[in-house]
Every structure is written in structure tokens, then in C-alpha cells.
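Sequence and structure are kept together here, with a separate record for every protein. An example record follows, reproduced without changes.
>
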Amino acid sequence: MDGWKGLPTLAQRERRKGTRAMNHVLSTHLFVNHRLTSSLLGKIEHLGVPAVEIFCARQHLDYRDKAQIGELGHWFRDSDLKLHSLHSPMYNDEIWGRSGPQAVVTITEPVKSKRLQMVDEIKRTIEIAETIPFRYLIQHMGVGGEEFDMRKFDAAFAALEELNLFARGRGVEILLENIPNELSSAEKLVQFEELTHLGLNYVFDTGHAHMGAGVEHEFLLMRDRIRSTHVHDNNGTDDNHLFPLVAEGGTIDWKNTMQLLRSREQQYPLVLELKEKPEYTNPLESAMQVFERLEAQGQEAQ
């Protein structure tokens, strides 16, 4: 991450080019294997990114660690950087679920006693809003590749009904994400809403849509309820969170995608959810290049 000092901010770059950009947010998923510190957040703020999404993985942000939450809360109170959203935990351990199947956190668990434990785990992340206010909690419904089962819909409904009430009491809105499984495609999210009437909105993930029925197809089904995004690239098969228009191997049509995203840009920001790669010695500067190139594609499409 060396070399960030002295770089022009995003706002300065936009003024130079005279363009109008969407609101930008960077997910700390880019640094998810490192402990989240105020130093890292300061570097993001310096580059002119106005807001972040923090990924709740315990090796990164330990939502059980009151000292870490308190330290970051103190930093945010003195900073112009805003916390746009938190990504709900996928595992309850510090090693990406490698401690065993009991580490998976999923709201589709059909056994009530086990599901309630997972709901309590998610509530711990929502409680962060009492120290660091944020608007959205990004929630998966199931895990990658999970097969459809109506009992899992029932389990998710029970979990989300409780979580939604808990979140609203803290000024937080839960957003469901389209992920690559048989429970959370755009079609299934629409079906889930028709069955439950929970009134939940969505986060639209470009990479996951590309792996499914396609970016345009899923966007058009979800568009009225999209309140945030996850923007990343892949080859249509592997969920590897590539840097759009910078990394090799991505196959999303970004001109068309940016045209779609800018068609309803007042509903949501452009949120980059990227994966750290060893070839990027300055990942923050590479992320800034992604913002610039995506905006250029959007301007060209218009």
C-alpha cells in the first residue's frame, strides 16, 4: 500500500476531467485477510473515496471485539469518511470457515436451535450501529451453490423477520444480495418477496449476476429494489472478484453494465468489492483506476 501519499483525490481528478460520477464506495473486502485499522481507513479517506463498506470477517473486523469496534468508532467520529454498509458474516471463525462446517453462518439453517445461534451472531454485527452508524447490512440467503428447498425459504423468512426488527431499531436496513445459488438468483429473490412480503430491498452484485442468468437479466428483475451494489468482474464461472477493466480474465460487458447502473443511479452508489491480488502492489491506486475506467465507460455509453 506504499505510494498513496501525494496522489490526487478522486474529486480532484473529476474536476480536471469535468465529468459527473456516481457516488463511490469501496468495500474493505479488498483487505479482508488483514486486520482493519484506522491507518487503512485513513488511506482510503485520503484518496477521496467518501464511504466504505466493511466486511465482517473476524480476522478483519472482529465484531465480537469491543476494543476494535471502539477504536474504529472513535476514528469515524473524527473523520469525513462514512460507513455506508456492513457485510454480514459468512463464518464465525477467523480462518474463512476452515475450522469446520459449524463455522458457517447461514439464515437458511432449518434447525431452529442452530439458526437462532446464527441469528444472534448476525445481531452482533448490527449492534455496531450503536457505535458506528451505518445504513445497510448486506445479507446472503444461503451459501454458494446451495440447492433450492422451500424449507430453507421458511427458515430465511423466520430469521429475517427477527433480524429486520432488530436492525430497524438501530437505524439499519437489511439488503438481500443475489449470490450464485438456487435460493438467491434474481428470480428467487423476487419469488421470496412475493411469498413473504417482508419488503426487503437488494444489493445488486455484478459478478454474481454474470455467473447466473446475466447482468442485464438480473438487473432488470431487481432494479426497483436495488439500494446498493457490489461491482467486480469474473469469467462467468469463478467468483474471483477481479478488478474491472484492470485485471485480465474478466468477461463482463462494462459499457452495457454501466449504462444499466447509471439508469437508476439515484437509488444506489457504485460499490467496488474486489479481491486482493499479489500483482497489485498498490491495490488502493488500482481500485481508483477501476472507478475512473468504469465512469469513462458510463460516460461513453451515455
User: Anything to note?
Assistant: The two ends are 34 Å apart (CA to CA).
